[in-house]
Amino acid sequence: MLSLLALVACGESTPEAHAAAQPREDSSAIEALLQEPTSPPARVQASNDLDASRSTAIVTAADRVAPAVVSVNVTRRQVRAGRSMFDWFFMPRGYEREVQGLGSGFIVSSQGLVITNQHVTAGATEIVVTTRDGVDYPARLLGEDPYTDIAVLQIEADGDLPTVPVGRSTGLLIGEWVVAIGNPFGYLLGNTEPSVTAGVVSAVGRNLIPSGEDQTVYVGMIQTDAAINPGNSGGPLINALGDVVGVNSSIFSRSGESVGIGFAIPIERALRVAAELERYGSVRRSWIGLSVAGSDRMREWKRTGGLTVTEVAPNGPADEAGLEPGDVILSAFGRSIRTFLDWEAVKLDVSPGDTLDLQVQRGDRQRRVLAIVNALPTTLAERISVLGDMELITVSPAIRQERGIQSEAGALIFDIGGSTQRSTGLREGDIIIQINRTAVTGAEQVQEIFRQVQGLGAIRVYVERGGGIGWTEFYVR
Is the model more confident about 56 or about 243? Predict the structure, then answer.
């Protein structure tokens, strides 16, 4: 059928066909439709009024933010296992190839600071940021935080860059209009103009239960039905005033496409994390020095509210504020605490040096408690190097509470290189509690024992891992 149509269209012309191709006198009627309208003044005025009404608050808000929304184009190397017999025969260990990734972001500083998602930049070997006007800028990764899914990029431009207006998420109302802006298809659409989807705030303070090996903690999130599609990740969520209130991050979907359940990171958290990444290259985690009831009491939490304090680290922030085991934490900064994930959201939104404002119940009495947050004890502790690329920290009461360690003493493996991990069977997070017949009380003791047995026979090292006790044997060379 296609070839037949082509033959008719391209065949030799006949006199009749030539005559039919000549202009008709009445063809100007159609051509007139392409000219300037000649409507009566009243109709023109009505049209102008309609045009003005089309410029809604959403249109104005999107126009206010769009110049500072960018595409984030990522190149990363990916190891792929062989899929065919040919692959398995010639590349039995798998092979590397370059893959392209795509996300969105927005400029928060005229000097070129860009906020996006960490899952967009993860593993990147090259990052290019493309602005709305189609200019490509090589980007430098200042820092990324997989725990909160925030990354900060730096681009260099000749002049000042447009920036987004920043609002607040704390006053969001359920049902109010919000707009998600991003570049879900990047270059596939042939231009870099960001796309806009509108919806409402479906809920606030949403907690997503972690699953699998994903280390990201999605707590205290903004839920919206504004479509957030692949490629929108890292773009801004804005309110009807055009102020950024969140960072588009994830969707709830079985197909991978938007089904009207999307989540955004509150802008206050994103900015706090971004400031830490810009200044330190990493995020300083907060430590309050207490543990709360575990998930086995989830039903009771939902019914009564509040979390029961189960442990308080000696001389920690909670201890110095007067908290005790058995106290019930009802709220933090006026926000109700009902589940463990609510508590995780509180810890994510405070930094070392901040004052945590708690409402606590002890017995029949309620009182206000102010606790000054510290940095994690493991980040402040002295590190001892052994075996070349393994770092140990002496277990203290504070570190026991931070890491949930069962053993009274030992040496925590804070970091370990890949080759040492393979040759010893040890892992990051293990607690060395005994070497051969000698109980371990600290990191320096492990260093001394390893020095003494170097070049001798195999040693047996006992460790606490995941609450259980195991052992491994290896030579110290």
Answer: 243
Annotated catalytic residue 18: no
Torsion over CA: 47, 49, 52, 57 (sign): negative
396 an active-site residue? no
The total number of residues shown for the chain amounts to 477
Q: What is the reported pLDDT for 294?
A: 54
Confidence band, pLDDT 50/70/90 cuts, at residue 216: confident
Handedness of CA 62, 64, 65, 67 (dihedral sign): positive
Confidence check: pLDDT of 92 > 90? no
Q: List the beta bridge partners of residue 42.
A: none
Per the CB < 8 A criterion, the answer to whether 170 and 308 are in contact is no
| Helix spans in 281-416 (H) | 298-304, 317-320, 340-348, 377-380, 397-403
Out of 71, 195, 233, 331, the active site residue is: 233
Contacts of 78 (CB under 8 A, 6+ apart): 96, 97, 98, 99, 123
Residue 174 contacts residue 134 (beta carbons within 8 Å): no
Contacts of 34 (CB under 8 A, 6+ apart): none
Instruction: Output the six-digit token pair for 338.
Output: 């009902």
Contact of 199 with 226, CB cutoff 8 Å: yes
The single residue of 71, 104, 145, 149 carrying the catalytic annotation is: 149
- pLDDT of 77 above 80: no
CA separation for the pair 435, 354 (Å, rounded): 41
pLDDT tier at 7, thresholds 50, 70, 90 = very low
Note if 119 is an active site residue.
yes
Distance CA 463, CA 472 (A): 8
* pLDDT category of residue 215 using cuts at 50, 70 and 90: low
Give, as one character, the DSSP assignment of residue 166. Answer: B
